[in-house]
Amino acid sequence: MTGINRRRALAAGIGGALAMPGLARAQTQPQTQATWKPDRPITVYNPLAAGGVCDVHLRFLGERVGRKWGQQVNVDVKAGAGATLAAAQMVNVKPDGTVIACMTINSLRYPHYQTANWHPLRDFSYIIGLSEFTFGVVVRSDSPYKTIQDLIAAGKSQPDKLNYGTSGIGGTGHLLMIETEQATGARFTHIPYKGTTDWMPALLGGHIDFVPDGAGWAPFVENGQVRVLAMATEKRFGKYPDKPTLIESGINAVAVSPYGLVGPKDLPPQVVQALHDAFKEAMADPGHQPLLDQFIQEPWYRDPAQYRAFAEKYYVDVKPMLVKAGLAKS
């Protein structure tokens, strides 16, 4: 299977096979509400930097869940280890529903190339899928690179001179650039950060030359500080119809990066269901989609069974990509 077909098959496993009609915006048929209700505040661990897109999203949902239950929902930043640290904390958490985590897709990659004391399929209870980052390659508005071809040409003529920032080693942005380098022969220097609130100031301050990551950069495109060179989507993105995809540019790469909520293993089914129902209700809030639109993110609703099924499939499917990228051994 070619690189692009493998990536498209992978994307289809995320956005197609499991995305039943009506699920995308959390509008499934009502389910019977679970009877469990927390008797004390809930903590949600955030795997990315404070103030970033994920942080803002979790706080929005947590505020509404908190109002529903009359309990505070606190978002606690646990950034690090390639955005896997938050979910990894679940191995030390009592399965009572009061401490859960946001899990990025990197938790399904990390154990393939790093030794971990946790396993994503054995040690987590899957609760709900929330959203998916939209990726693009961006530069400052005053950058000399006007197109993705300009950037690639510079990476070929001056290997490793240009720096780029992402949300961590082995993350979606890093994999995107490894695949881009393999496809084009260009070479760039990777500088990992904890998230948007770290790499965005670095980009604007001239410490890095470009960012191939999730659209925490979108508001800066709106205010004219940042320019999009290409989108890492299957098709041209509606908000930027004049911006080509990497595929159109001859680079066989598509970024795939959803996230959701997980708890520790052995979380009782009624607790899983209650948490799912509460956060699903929060996703139906009228302000939810406008918040996602601000950062050009896609809704990515999955119920507990669908989320686990996705994780089981992706964990297997992603390994060949990591081997090709030189991050994992076959």
Walk me through what this model shows.
This protein is an alpha/beta fold. Residues 1-33 have low confidence and may be disordered. Helices cover 35% and strands 18% of the residues. It has helices at residues 3-15, 53-69, 85-88, 110-113, 148-157, 172-184, 196-204, 218-222, 269-283, 288-294, 304-317, 319-324, and strands at residues 42-46, 73-77, 99-104, 124-132, 135-140, 163-166, 189-192, 211-214, 226-231, 258-264, 298-302. It has two domains: 3-133 and 257-324, D-Maltodextrin-Binding Protein, domain 2; 135-231, Periplasmic binding protein-like II (D-Maltodextrin-Binding Protein, domain 2). It has a six-stranded mixed beta sheet. It has twelve helices and eleven strands. 48% of the residues are buried. Helix 6 (172-184) links the parallel strand 6 (163-166) and strand 7 (189-192).
Counting H and I runs of at least 4 residues, what is the number of helices? 12
Rounded Rg: 19 Å
CATH fold annotation of the largest domain: D-Maltodextrin-Binding Protein, domain 2
User: What's the CATH superfamily of the largest domain, by name?
Assistant: Bordetella uptake gene, domain 1
Q: Give the helix/strand class.
A: alpha/beta
Shape verdict: globular
Task: Tell me roughly what share of residues is in helical segments.
Answer: 25-40%
Terminal Cα span: 17 Å
Oligomer: single chain
Question: Would you kindly provide a brief summary of this structure?
Answer:
The protein has 330 residues and is of the alpha/beta class.
Topology:
Layout: H1 3-15, E1 42-46, H2 53-69, E2 73-77, H3 85-88, E3 99-104, H4 110-113, E4 124-132, E5 135-140, H5 148-157, E6 163-166, H6 172-184, E7 189-192, H7 196-204, E8 211-214, H8 218-222, E9 226-231, E10 258-264, H9 269-283, H10 288-294, E11 298-302, H11 304-317, H12 319-324
Parallel strand pairs: 1-2, 1-3, 6-7
Antiparallel strand pairs: 3-10, 4-10, 4-11, 5-8, 5-9
Helix pairs in contact: 2-9
